Every structure is written in C-alpha cells, then in structure tokens.
Amino acid sequence: MTSPTDATSATGATRATDAADGRASADFYDFESALPDDEREILLRTRAFMREEIKPLVNESWAEGSFPDELITRFRKSGLAGLAYEGYGEHRPAVSHLLTGMMAMEMSRVDASVATFFGVHNGLAMYSIQAGGDQEQRDRWLPGMAAMDTIGAFALTEPLDGSDVAAGMRTTAERRGDTWTLNGAKRWIGNATFADHIVVWARDVEDDQVKGFVVGKGTPGFTARKIENKTSLRIVENADITLTDVQVPDSDRLQNVSSFRDVAEILRATRSGVAWQALGVMIGAYELALGYATERQQFGKPLAGFQLVQDLLVKSLGNITACWGMLLQLARLQDAGVFKDEHSSLAKAYVTARMREVVAWAREIFGGNGIVLDYDVARFFADSEAIYSFEGTREMNTLIVGKAITGQSAFV
C-alpha cells in the first residue's frame, strides 16, 4: 500500500532504521549492549523476522481490519515463542526478562497489533498456565503453545467491568462434582475468535474467589464474536465472548490459582511487557519521522534542517531514552526476583504517556502525509491509543504507585 510519492520517504526511513553496528538508530545510549551475545542474536533475529516476514503484511491487514492466517504460519517458523519458559521453547535455559522485553519492543517497532497478538499468546495465556497451572497442565498445554501449533487467549475484562473487575467480576463458576459450569460474558479478548486455548477467569459461587479455567476451542456454550469498527489495533481480533452453561472438567481448572491475588501476580508480570510495547511504538514512529525529515524537501532543504523539526525529533529521542533506561532497570529487578506491582505500574503509566507525545510529534512532522497508511505513521498514531488504555489505565496504575509511595489508598 505504497504511493508513488512514498519512494523518497521509504528510502529515508530505511536509512534511519539501524546504526552501523546493527543497533536501532533510536538506541542513542547503546542499551542493547546490556544483552549478552547469545540473547542479542535472538533480538537481531526478531528484528530481521519482523522486517522481512511481517512488515509486508501489516498495512493491508490493518486497512481491512483482518488478521492474516499467514501471520501465525510465519511466527511458527520463526521459533520466537516460548523462549521465556524453560523446557518449552527453543532456547535453553529460559531467556532473561530484558530480552523478552526488547523482543516486545522490536515487534512493536514494526507493528503494535502483531506485538499484541504475540503478547496475548506468549505472555498472558502462556504465563497464566506456567504460573497458575500444575506440572501436568504445563506439560499438556505449553509445548504446543511454544511451537505455536496451538494459540492462546486471556479472558478477564468484562462488558461492564474493566478496571474494577477484581471486585465486580460477573462471570461465575459453579462446581458440581468434577465439572465446573461457567456463565457470563467477556469483552475485548484478543485472539479469542481463533484461539485453541482460552484462559477464562470466573468467580466461584461457593467461596466468592476468582478461579482460572482453560476453555478449549469449540466447547459447547462458548461463543466469540469479533468486535468490528475499531480505530486502533485493527489487526488484532478482539472479541465479545459469551459463556452459557459451559462445562469444564476440574482437570482444566488452573490448579494453583485460588484468588484474584493470583491473577494480579500474572498481570504484574505482563504489564511490564506492555510498557516495552509502548517503547517500541515510540521507536517505530520516531524512526519513520527521522527518515521522512531527512528526505522530504521544503523551502529548498530537508525538513531535518529546520530548528522546530529538530526540536520535535530531539524531544522524541529524549522520551525514548528515558523510557528505555527505566525499562532496562525494571527488567533487572524482574530478573533478580525483587520487582513489585508499583514498579511495573509506574513503567506502564509513564512510558505510555510519553508514547502518546512521541507519536503525535511524529505525525506532526509528516504533515498531511501523516494521516494516510502509505507512510505508516498514521498506524502508529492510532494504535498507541489502545496501548495507552489496556493492561491498566494510566489512572489506575497511578493509584497503585501513589499507594506505594504514600501509604494511603486513594481507590474508590
């Protein structure tokens, strides 16, 4: 979906993409050097895969609001899934949180929808089973998911409950013998229209505690309807789910989940991944703007030669650098096993706010060309709004951090 006028901007964007040593050109402080050589090789493999195999698919799919089946096929061949789960992915042992974060960043640098699809499968769904399942369940589901022979989804948000789902969850689970009956509805569930394993969270009517269940594709009473007319993350197949007397054996209940506190542990770990996605969106938009400004001629010289344009580019690079440094340290806290809810919440709230600034400045540099898909930046601009909201809004994450630093809860 490239117009004839796009030729020079595409050339500039390509030239602005990577430094001479292969680093992202936005990596002004050489953060990638924090990775050991074997993990940096995986990052470079991710970079090449996204650029060569995925980028050609995204604009047409985004315009159509469709998820191409070919995308899963290409991911399956890449071997990038499951690397964080020791014994289940291609890499042994499990890779660091820093690498998995940078992989999410690298995917979002090309397309946020694709990164979200992968994050739901490889992060939310697989981590729910890894953290919430027993060993038999891990061995049953994770190998196929790591190979991407089967795809996962994560069903928590409900039509009437987003941020307050912990207290307001309406989906119920009732046990009769060795079988559970699920009833309720979920909304905004990524991958749900085609996923093989959907991790559904429901409130046990007996003890009023949240439990997790893995519902298989095609289970009677389970329906998933694609949400249409989205203006953000259009490639992601978000769905409205309805559960009507869905029967799930107790063997498919996540055995190590007994309350919403366990769900919160999963969200704490995956929320940082969304912050890395936001960083990737910033980098992608900045690099597009840098390439365009270098090539686009106005008043007899490149846009990059004007002070106000340089101001926008430098402010963008400053945001990127500050956020990258924050996320680098967050990953180190994760790898050390000492990070807390407030750490991931601050990162998610701060980085997504800076992302909003950067994508707006990038679109501004493109002028009128910034509102058409041909130049890519419009996609980044639109997709940033979803990332800003999901996995906890800025306001909710702010209150988590506020409670941690003041000792006072300001939640209503």
TrEMBL record:
Its cofactor is FAD. InterPro entries: ACX4-like, Acyl-CoA_DH_CS, Acyl-CoA_Oxase/DH_mid-dom, Acyl-CoA_Oxase/DH_mid-dom_sf, AcylCo_DH-like_C, AcylCo_DH/oxidase_C, AcylCoA_DH/ox_N, AcylCoA_DH/ox_N_sf. It comes from the Bacteria. Residues 263-405 form the Acyl-CoA dehydrogenase/oxidase C-terminal domain. GO terms for molecular function: acyl-CoA dehydrogenase activity; flavin adenine dinucleotide binding. Residues 153-246 form the Acyl-CoA oxidase/dehydrogenase middle domain. Residues 37-148 form the Acyl-CoA dehydrogenase/oxidase N-terminal domain. GO terms for biological process: fatty acid beta-oxidation. Keywords: FAD, Flavoprotein, Oxidoreductase. Belongs to the acyl-CoA dehydrogenase family. PANTHER family: ACYL-COA DEHYDROGENASE, ACYL-COENZYME A OXIDASE. This is Glutaryl-CoA dehydrogenase. The gene is gcdH.
